[in-house]
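Input set for joint prediction.
Command: fold jointly, output tokens.
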Amino acid sequence: MDGEDAAMAGGTSGQAEQAIRLRDLQFSWSGRTSFRMEVPDLRVARGEKVFLLGESGSGKSTLLSLICGINAPQRGTVEVDGTALGSLSAAARDRFRAERIGVIFQMFNLLPYASPLENILLPLSFAKARRARVADPRAEALRLTAGLGLEADLVCGARASELSIGQQQRVAAARALIGGPALIVADEPTSALDAARQGDFLDLLMQQTEAEGATLLMVSHDARLAERFDRVMDLSQVVLTSREGPGAGG
Amino acid sequence: MLLTALAWQSLLSRKITVGLTIFAISLSVALFLGVEKVRTGAKASFADTISDTDLILGARSGGVQLLLYSVFRVGNATNNVTWESYQDIASRPEVDWIVPISLGDSHRGFRVMGTTTDFFDRYKYRGGRGLEMAEGARFDDLFDAVVGADVAAELGYETGQEVVVAHGLASFTEHDDKPFRISGVLARTGTPVDRTVFVSLRAIEAIHVDWRNGAQIPGQTVGADAVRQMELTPGAITAAMIGTKSRLQIFGLQRWINEYPEEPLLAILPGVTLQELWSLIGVAETALVGVSAMVVATALLGMAAMIFSGLAERRREMAILRAVGARPWTILGLLSLEALLMAGLGVLLGLALLYGGLLAGRGWIDQSFGIYLRIGAPSPRELAVLGLVLLAALLVSLMPAWRAYRMSLSDGMSIRI
Ligand SMILES: Nc1ncnc2c1ncn2[C@@H]1O[C@H](COP(=O)(O)OP(=O)(O)OP(=O)(O)O)[C@@H](O)[C@H]1O
Ligand SMILES: [Mg+2]
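tokens >
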């Protein structure tokens, strides 16, 4: 428990210079699909902004769910911020995710019945350390959304379902950033936006990630967005995928 | 805290389906508790039909039968009690008071009961309430009659009106040579008294002096005036109500009557026999409770179905919660909490409906059915039922909640719609 709690405490410990490290990993979905992936070695350095490129169905979302500890690999290790997720209990993994990782999805990021502000504050109630880092959650949420170009009365007043898709994505970004998690994971956050707004959104996201000193891992199948990032990884080069499951006869 | 706030907001966002579900639950709860109230009310009213009478005396038959014909005016006595036996019992030292009852005749579907004016003082119901005259006075003259509230209402009778008593219960031969005059109308009691015509015991004798074996003796008719001169001592009565001087003497007197050597007699304790009678009706009672329990179960299943059908479109909600750090158990808890909130609101609204309905309708129910419904805090039994509803809601919600739990595990981070 001590080890887990230390891992939970968060902050930048400094020892691990890798934000993400995957080794000898092997994963297959249990179910009817026979999708199987292997990752021999994947590293993302702390503070790096990495663009992960891969075509549809290549396993991008699956890889992210492994990094976030929502799914567990059959073999190999996933280390985030120096902590091996496999060494944590399921409950501790959920807490670890809450503390260390901010997630942005492609679309439908928000609880439709809650206000944008409540959506932004949501992770704080699952993450004690993140909560402890912000003195005034509301003010912090407004600071982040202001940085992302959203007006305060829109954030506090409206319902999440009343926002445009671009606004929703910015609220989701603020939710991922609040409380300063070490890692921001974005799964095609711009694919629902038009080209002009994709650029705007990415610039704001990068700016804020940098300001918070976080690592950014973003996946997309749209190579045009790659140039703004520190590094571009092609999924087909780091991940071996196959359609045949182990033991699946054909 | 957070979970409650989320559950609450999620419910609010689905006002219409949630509202209807809550309404269905509240109706079922109100129905169940209402049936429960009416059931206990009916049972109490039933047990309250006669009180303060220690023993009922009749010819030997079944106890329930004796109660039925003497108190409820249902069925017939197979035998009578001779006047001599009645006198014997009346003179026992334990007897504080005794009121004779003579049944057998009718008036337009209502039973006619011969008794003494003591009846109006001794007959008590609903825990010691006495009879009151709504109009007029007790019978005084030989051919005076007092009618119950239902008799007066249904036949439109007022004091002073003349009525004719029919011989037997369903016959066309009438004692039309000796008409009665209504001297008074009783106030409503909600007991069989309301459906009875009261005359004096002597009057019963008077209309039968010239009758033998169910027919008037030809050539020997006695006029109404002539009969007044006669000594009208009854040969027999149907039953009698007895009060003892001390409650301790009831069983002794009962045994004495039951072992009376001259004639086979029976004395019953009305309270005990009422309970016996109620247990016979109890089957219907159980069926009623069963049906209303099924209604509650249906409403809860409806709620589960509603949660189930909402799951598909709430999959992304689950994925979002998982992504921000919620445990699968949190999601299970969220859905169960929603169910509990709905059931809780349903129960509260159901109670409001019930008490509103009771306040509005109980006067009318007492008037029309003679069932007096008490309004009080829910009984422990009712509270237990309400607790059970909440528990059942929780259990029922586990089905969809478990499914959501599984989904939140298997979907991973991908948002599926
Ligand atoms: N929950 C699941 N259960 C079983 N199989 C799954 C599940 N999610 C994804 N898969 C399978 O894993 C493979 C990779 O899916 P994944 O969602 O990771 O692709 P992706 O690269 O994110 O695609 P896209 O660009 O369309 O989002 C697919 O073949 C899919 O069928
Ligand atoms: Mg994907």
